[in-house]
Amino acid sequence: RALLAKAGLTKNGDAEIERRVVAERAAGRMLLSENGFLRLLGLMKAPEASSLSRQSLIDQSRLSGADLDRLSLFDAFEHDGEPYSFRDLILARKYAGLIAGGATWGAITRSVHRSGPVASLTAKSLNVGSQHGRADAIYLEGGQSELDGQLLFDLGAATQGDDTLEDLFTEAEAAEEGGDHDGAAALYQRCLAIDPTDAIAAFNRANCLRGSGRAAEAAHDYARAIKLDPAF
Question: Does the predicted TM-score (pTM) go above 0.85?
Fold first, then answer.
């Protein structure tokens, strides 16, 4: 990650990383991400079991193989290699949209790292850019979206009439951040009762259910989120 941060300070930094990656792989060396190395040493817990192959992730997200490998190498996904998870697929779809909108893999990765652990990225933060016509927006910070250090737009205040749902969603996010997965799942369910078309609430509820060990229910809500919004 230090290499990635340093590369961001130079004009051709990311291109140099790409050149080095190609050279190392051509020499037959196996490359590990930082998280992958820590997991190999037993210093970091491995993510939950997953089943998506590299090719399946590429086919379903339309992310190029090269960009997938670079993003994986710099830990922009929960898993540093195949098999990938359903959450990784949603991230891959978002990253593919960002790249189609002109963002680079390096800018995306640096922005994701600044936002905190990949597992903390919610559907709301990942989806907000496309909802407001800005495909290059990755996450929210203080009401604004950011990509590679540049503030993009101010979301402004919620419209009148949305207060109840907005407050409920905020309460659910707070419960999720506090580790109360069961309580957060119940609150997201209340959001869905008000707005059954809210793919974000469905996705976040799935994350909470997974966090509380309710894998089967989580899988149902992940599928629901994709059905409600195929762009995830």
Answer: no
